[in-house]
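User: Hi! Is it possible to get a structure for several chains at once, not just one? Here's what I have:
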Amino acid sequence: MSPNSKNYFQSYLGIGPEEEAEMLNSIGYNSTIDLFSDVPQNLIERTPINIDGPYSEFELNSIFKKISQKNFNDHLSFLGGGVRDLYIPAFLEELMRRGEIYTAYTSYQPEIAQGMLQLIYEYESQVAELTGMDVISASLYDWATALGESARMMMRIMKRRSILVANPISPERLEVLRTYTEHSGFNIVLVDGEGTINQNDILIIIEEDSRKDKKEREIAGVYFEIPTFHGVLPSQVDEFIDEIHKYDVLVTVGIDLISLGILRTPAEYNADFMIGEGQILGSGVSNGGPLLGILGTKYNRKWIQNFPGRLVGKTTELGSDLPGYCITLSTREQHIRREKATSNICSNQTLMAVNAGIFLAGLGPKGIRDLASGLVDRAHYLAKELNKLEGIRSPVFEPFLFDFVVDFGSISHEKLEEQCISQGILPGLKIEGTSCLRLISVSDKHRKEELDYFVNVISEVSKL
Amino acid sequence: MIHKRTQAKWEEPLILNKGGAGRRAYIPESVNLPKETIPDEWIRKSPLELPQVSELELVRHVVRLSQMIHGVDVGPYPLGSCTMKYNPKINERIARFPGFADMHPQAPEQSIQGTLEVFFWLQETLKKLTGFDAVTIQPPGGASGEFTGVLVIKAYHEARNDTKRDTIIIPDSAHGTNPASAAMAGFKVIEIPSTEDGYVDLEALKSVLTENIAGFMITNPNTLGLFEPNIQEICKMVHDVGGLNYLDGANFNGIVGVIKPAKMGFDVMHMNLHKTFTGPHGGGGPGSGPVAVSEKLRKYLPVPIAAKKDQTFYWDFSNKKTSIGKVHGYNGNFGIALRALLYILRNGGPGLRKTCETAVLNANYLLHHVRQINGLTIPKGKNVPCKHEFVASASKLLKETGVSTNDIAKAMLDYGVHSPTVYFPLIIKEALMIEPTESESKQSLDLIADVFKEITKLAYSDPDSVKNSPHLTSTGRLDEVTLAKKPVLSQLIEKKDIFS
Amino acid sequence: MKVGLICNPIAGVGIFLGTKGTDNVQLAWEKISEGLDPPVYKIINRTLCQLKSLKRPIQFFTTFNINKVLQSCNFSLPFEVCYSMPNHSTSQNTIEAVQIFVEKKVDLIIFFGGDGTASDVAKTAPYIPIIGIPSGVKIFSAGFLHTPDDLLQILQNWPLPVKKELLVDLDEKLYEKGKIVPKYTVEATLPVNPRIQLGKISYGESDELVYERIAERINEDKMLSNKSILVGAGSTFYKIFEFLNLEKTLLGIDYYVNGELRIKDLDPSKFDNLEIDELWVTPIGRQGHLIGRGNRQISPEILKKIGLKNLKVFSTPEKSKDLEKLYIDTQDSEVDLLFKGFVQVIIGYYESVLKKVE
Ligand SMILES: Cc1ncc(COP(=O)(O)O)c(C=O)c1O
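Assistant: Yes, the chains can be modeled jointly so their relative placement is included. Here is the combined structure:
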């Protein structure tokens, strides 16, 4: 190839070689490298750095098509645990390709970004409607970091240094929570439960803590998930949360947003903060990112001063009644008042929030109910069918919603995975335990035939 | 007179207030299975007033709204420190290949060889570009990268039982995320003043260098768009007292392909893939903030890291014990990492070098023209070329006409040009931070300069017309004050009428 | 160039009366007749001695014999006493003297005094540029030099651009109660120069969080423990200490030992016997003075003992943002020099800002 034909990058440059010379000349330089005359010369690379490329667009397209095809995305997947591979309607994908939307940045100049700001406000409003929480952050990175932020926020508000976490929780979320807290002297106390929240032990620990001198108290808040990481719907959450509140301790719940199409909202059972994963609202699992961290709370001026992430609000045009939208309360953010920053988050997952907003609008109240109950039906059917197989216990924990834990008995995880993958199946998430426990998650991409196929494959594998 | 642009002005109601009962845009796949019930105590009681709209209604709504957004695809976007370069469309296509978009992050390694290859390829490439020895792609944004990097510094000192080091030094020109990240990691922060010229004040730095210093965080090229001439000496001074040096790589576009950051004396850096390597900015994100470190810090990085043995890729957890832990539930913003890799490969070494040089040329060309505008001054960098961006001040204009930086920013919008970053860095009064990027053409740079010229001229003849701008955008200035007092943050708050 | 030079002989006496101003003229003169050397003399001496290197002819109109003051530094200046201040002078005498300056068509009036003197001068000569040499107790008005040592530079570079600005004189009674209420305001013509201070504006941080977070840091770092600390005046400390659940006077200097308040509103004569490990101060808003305004009670001797190393500076972020540099004006050049360098200003739970002290 001649060197010239390797100039594929010229497509991305605003000026051509002749213009370059002209512009240099007009500002009194001979060559572009002279613009680095102020840099210590020992730092300057004399030749281009030796990395792969340049590639043509066509080459990129074919190389990466091949790479993408190395992934087993066509396998029948029962992986979940926080993200979920749901179907994405075409109109949504099409709309998200609008360059006006994805090539903009933070709406620092609201006058020229009304569309973006309204989309974000619609996201906030719909998630508020769905969860009953008045204030929704737009946005945090993912569920796990939302947990980290919410734990820090509870400790800031209460001026205490510990958080109780109900286990089961996903090991990944727990690890991120630890990174966000333990390096700066905060404590995470895990309270183990059998598939569900160990309400008893949590209350005992809080009660003990509450007997300390006010200044000595440690526990700022409790975190648990509904359904739990093992898929279980706990019972009598209202009473549990009331009890916690009596001791002047805060509550953050982790929820599955789609479940709220049919389940009671965190506002109904009076949680203080709500977090969750927004990826399930219309974006791909995308190898784990970009995701969407959701955080919401009821309106409370003092808490909101401690609330991380951008907030878009509704106001009016100066001198008219026309509505307008803009970023507000930005003194909480590091770029305005660094010393008051509630979090370091700057770039976030706005595009995913916009995506989620359009998805929810597309679903509407019926759609989300259908989607949620469709998942319930699939999960329960699958759990029952699996339970019919010899040596398999399914579900291990009840009552469950969309996801459930299956005990595959004496078979090893490795063998199960190997066998299933060879049959075109990704058999859920491995769970630490003494036997072969896995978390099975369903998707709206699963038809009855696919669920039956999974059961058949398992039936064969378990006979091996 | 320069041609102005009128932005679309749809009076589009909130989607929640559109539609009619029974309309549906997306009807999920139904399944032919027995209906299951959930426990009674869990049945939703509150109303669920989501929109009920048809597919066309929804599509029209979003398309109309999109016409009221300014993006790089619409016009010049010289937003300093944000590197608003072109977002290649091939990247969008490839990121949507089902193998990438629909793959679960926790699938067994053999089923995600493609994913691992992308991570691995990007890690190796970033190592070469930065001169560092190890890279994690996990941090999902620049600030998250900072948090990661600062924790790595902490872990390094702690592993050596050097526990007195509780302070990070940061110049006063730094971005607010730097001190916020350091604080999140449990550090104290000392902010040091800059010199008259806008560089690190070596005297000031020296006066705070003690055995309590864990590290020094700096952006280079700095937030004034200037390369710190003493950077090697600075890094050495910090090393001499046992501290580590952190580079905020937000401004990597000013040196990428020309300078390897590790050579300046840094131990850690983060990159903003959404800036330098064009992951689209998405209206505020997603970003991606990989962290690169020198050998001695490798073992503190978050795990897992993509690795390769023979022809097989795998997740390497071998540093789990020493690692600072995870900073993202999975492996970061893969989608943005992939786009960055595509961009880098399309450019190759020669292309990135050309990209950087062109970005710097464009900035200097624009600087040359802005410098001559009455009312604007360039307070720093008197006798040196800037790098990829520069900072002007409208102090003079404000004094002479009452027209502020904010007013200029607003007036620019009427020309279809996004405003620069304003009032940052904090050390420049009435700052306008201007970064044209290599993507802009000469015509577009001339346009930006002419727009500044016309607005400042108008400021002297008819200041009120500038102060009342913009006029042609989808809305005029908004009542932000009332909003801050009564923050209507969702329709639910409106419905509940919380503030009356 | 013609310069009017006037001195309020009782300026600064308020310190010795334990008041925050010298509004009570009678008491002040009593104190002087009891044998107190008027504190302003020392300042006059320091200010005028530097004019030895003045390189332009200036005709001074004064209210006292300046060469008497200049004897100690072995030089003299041409001057004319155009008004002689009676014993037990009052603000009426200041006004009369300034009237004569106006008749003499002076280009500039320099006065030794505080906010009270400033407003007397300004109201009599609203169109003549004035510069104050800080000598009073309350010095919140604009128009004062940051330090007397800058006078030479100002005169050398005269004429300077001028602008109109409102001067305030605070109500002393209310001020002691912590309320910043201007007694009256006067319009003055002030030279514009970085060596001349801008008026103090009050930083009523609407947000209590700021103080709370500084308090948290003090607690967490156990800054009060096992130490004897002098804590200076100002609303910043007043509010921080509220969050520490410790009493703090608004305008006095208080003495804490191991986290307990020992002596409230210290009398300057008692300082000498105290053991002092640290001195905590907060800069005056917009002016940036750490010592020499508001904290005038702290004598150069004490400061010498404490040293820059044991000076801790606190500020709200807003106030700090407006201050490029900090100033020490102890009325003793030697001590001022001791405190030159960089100092860390604690502005929040985790953040400090390094500032240059001049
Ligand atoms: C200099 C600098 N550092 C850090 C950041 C933060 O990066 P991010 O927005 O990706 O978190 C920015 C973002 O604008 C920046 O300009």
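Residues A 346-347; B 81-82, 141-143, 175, 177, 219, 223, 248, 250, 272, 287, 289 surround pyridoxal-5'-phosphate (CB under 6 Å). Residues 205-357 of chain C form one domain.

User: Great, thank you!
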